[in-house]
Amino acid sequence: MELIITEKDNAARRIADILSGGGASTERSGGVNVYEWGGRRCIGLSGHVVGVDFPPEYSDWRDVEPAELAHAPVTKTPTQESIVNVLKRLAADADSAVIATDYDREGELIGKEAYELVRKANDDVPISRVRFSSITENEVQSAFADPDDLDFDLAAAGEARQIVDLIWGAALTRFLSLSARQVGDDFISVGRVQSPTLKLIVDKEREIEAFDPEDYWELFADLTKEETAFEAQYFYLDEEDTEAERVWDEGDAEAAFATLREAASAVVESVRRRTRTDDPPAPFNTTQFIRAAGSLGYGAGRAMSIAEDLYTAGYITYPRTDNTVYPEDLDPAELLDALSAQRDFADSVSLLQELDELEATRGDEETTDHPPIHPTSDLPSKSDLSEDEWELYELVVRRFFATLAEPAEWEHLRVVAAADDASLKANGRRLLEEGYHAVYPYFSADENHVPDVEEGEELAVSDPRLEAKQTQPPRRYGQSRLIETMESLGVGTKSTRHNTIEKLYDRGYIENDPPRPTRLAMAVVEAAEEYADLVVSEEMTADLEADMTAIAEGEKTLEEVTEESREILERIFEELGDSREEIGEHLRESLKADKRLGPCPDCGEDLLVRRSRQGSYFVGCDGYPECRFTLPLPSTGEPVVLDSECEEHGLNEVKMLAGRSTFVHGCPLCAAEEAAETEDRVIGPCPECGEAHGGELAIRKLQSGSRLVGCTRYPDCEYSLPLPRRGDIEITDDYCEEHDLPELIVHDEGSEEPWELGCPICNYEEYRARQGLDDIEGIGSKTKEKLSAAGVESVADLREADAEAVADDVDGVSAERVRDWQAKAD
DNA sequence: GCAAGGTC
Fold first, then answer.
1. Strands A663-666 and A96-100: what pairing?
2. What angle in degrees, to the nearest 10, is found between the helix axes of A558-576 and A519-531?
3. Given A103, A318, A531, A617, the catalytic residue
4. pLDDT at res. A385
5. Three-state secondary structure readout of A556-606
6. Which intervals of the chain are annotated as region Disordered (predicted)?
7. For residue range A65-92, what is the model confidence (pLDDT) as tens digits?
8. Which stretches of chain A score pLDDT less than 50?
């Protein structure tokens, strides 16, 4: 029996399909698919199934000096036990094994991990390696016809990276976290990729903060030829004799304005016509896909998550790729033919089919990892996809069209005219050949009409305008520009860059979109710059890349590279010496600044956003325990302190981040006052803390406009029940005997009948009982079908189900994912 | 409870 090992299940299935000619059978064991046919078995891993870590005696942050990690041993342990076990079992009775992981450096390392697991189970089985850059009949067949050996040097290069990243990341993260006494969930992280990325954002913010705006003026006037008016802009020649539009002196601007106002006509001095070719774009790699999705309003993480779904469903190729050159195997004509079946694409396909030849554009990056992202011949119907999925699917399809289409042709027309001694210019552009724009509407093809004029012609001048402006600070990085910059610096990979940005949000380093750094982020970057400059610099990646290349080429060993790196880190810790307190003080001060709202109305100390032991947020006084002033915060989302201040209390406003239901809560003191005045109506004892602490349930309105039944001891007690957003709530005299609460009626103008909601606890319990599976985030319609088939038909079923058992029964669902849904269901 | 890199 020959055992074939791929990097992921999807690849295993497709390779089995190709090699077996469609005759492979699937067996599921331990939650892992094994494909089998004529003397062969194929199993897909899930990326890395083992990971590096320190031995357990290094796991306590307080017991081990961070500096000790610089010379700590590093071990490998399975991280995906079930896959590892199945792999070993299959390896034990294999006669040969073939590693068929992805054709890139990390794939070679994942291949070596598989190699070692196979060896452990079977010490004399021959193990070979096949390489192919797209899973097509030709490539796969020829790769398997001529297998190669694993490249252990290349894998070692990857291992060196793992070790260096772990040691640096863990040692410096622990150091900063301990110095600031932030060792719980809110530790302070540092790493080779995240920290230079954060520094990009921080540096930009520093430029913005240091920016000093300058006043300038721009002037415009309309020129008219035979009733066709077009806008022209004033310009002059500066000291270097180059054209300038910005006038820096107000007096000069006023003088030019006077000239334009007094001029009745302008004489055309020059007319220049040029045609410009506008080439179609290159095929999509991950970064360019994220950028294009970004211009449609999708964040990087969201775009990748949708792409992942489209890939898993078989509609597009693998979304994590560096490659911008289609493989030779790809037959555009055949794929176009398949895509013409979809009505939305039929017109574009016919346009392309009329071309004499179909030659795709090529980008600068040509790699072996995967093909560029393109649609497959497996078409979804519009109803299979959500609106967002369809929008991005169409983007991928149309990008594919664009890469096959003709260039566009533009005519640029530049007219310069003189109104007395003031020069005016206009730039027109006209699309002569629509080219790829006809099939790819995402790039602007706007025209700017300037009529045909001739030199010496006299044009009427009207409506002169003088606009006072100011120079603007540099723009912040948007997510996609950040990812492009990371790529150009070689920081991160196609699979991780968007995750890195999300990590910076999670760690409290950045807020908003485009991201802005917090005070904490500024302090972390400052500390790193002073003591461990390398870790916030993209040079660390560049140096490591050079070392990895050397290892891959046999010029250096893994030991040499990691030892050298350990020594550099050791020296950093020597220099850190006794600055620990000072660094910690600065970090703590910055953390406080991020949470500070303003003066406490009771004692004048700072009010801060704090977190209760149960994990909920509230506003508390820095003077605690002497001052016990508190204010509640909404129970949904994470609070962010905004720059804007409440005029009445001088407190900063608060925004609650909760994904798409993010809202501005405003000043917490105003909210508390409003709640106290209006809607706090006590209805009965709190079932959670009523007996022990006398807590009571009340109908309360939150600043966000939503209402709930909540405990009066909030935030100490977080018991709450949902209420409808609209309508007046009537408290009746009928009582629910079970819960000792009055029955409620909702009177909503929008509905004819009042809604007899009843006892709020009974109502909530009933709601939970009938809640559907698709109410839970992350369960799509297809997954729902599969779950139903496995007997999980309602949320109630889900709550009671055994996660492992469900994972075994349902294809493509892990126990972890089930537990995640269960957590959401509760 | 640290990193970054795979994949779900």
1. unpaired
2. 110
3. A318
4. 96
5. CCHHHHHHHHHHHHHHHHHHHCCCHHHHHHHHHHHHHHHHEEEECCCCCCE
6. 362-385
7. 999 999 999 999 999 999 999 999 999 9
8. none
Both tokens of A402, joined, read 């664009």
Cα–Cα separations (whole angstroms), residue A173 to A194, A195, A504, A542, A564: 12, 11, 14, 21, 20
- Which domains does chain A show, CATH number per domain? 2-45+80-150 (3.40.50.140), 161-210+476-585 (1.10.460.10), 215-279+409-470 (2.70.20.10), 286-405 (1.10.290.10), 604-746 (no CATH), 771-825 (1.10.150)
Q: What distance, in Å, lies between the first and last C-alpha atoms of chain A?
A: 46
Burial class (CB in 10 A: 0-12, 13-18, 19+), A127: buried
Instruction: Show the tokens assigned to A118.
Output: 């196979």
Is the CB of residue A308 inside 7 Å of nucleic acid strand B?
yes
Looking at residue A734, its pLDDT comes to 76
* CA of A537, C1' of B5: distance in angstroms: 19
Is the CB of A52 within 7 Å of strand B?
yes
A190 touches strand B (CB under 7 A): yes
Type of residue numbered A651: L
d(CA A532, CA A529): 6
Please give the pLDDT value at position A749: 67
User: For position A82, what pLDDT does the model report?
Assistant: 94
Rounded distance between C-alpha atoms, residue A503 and residue A300, angstroms: 12
Q: What is the pLDDT of residue A116?
A: 97
**How many CB atoms within 10 Å of residue A778?**
9
Q: What DSSP designation does A438 have?
A: G
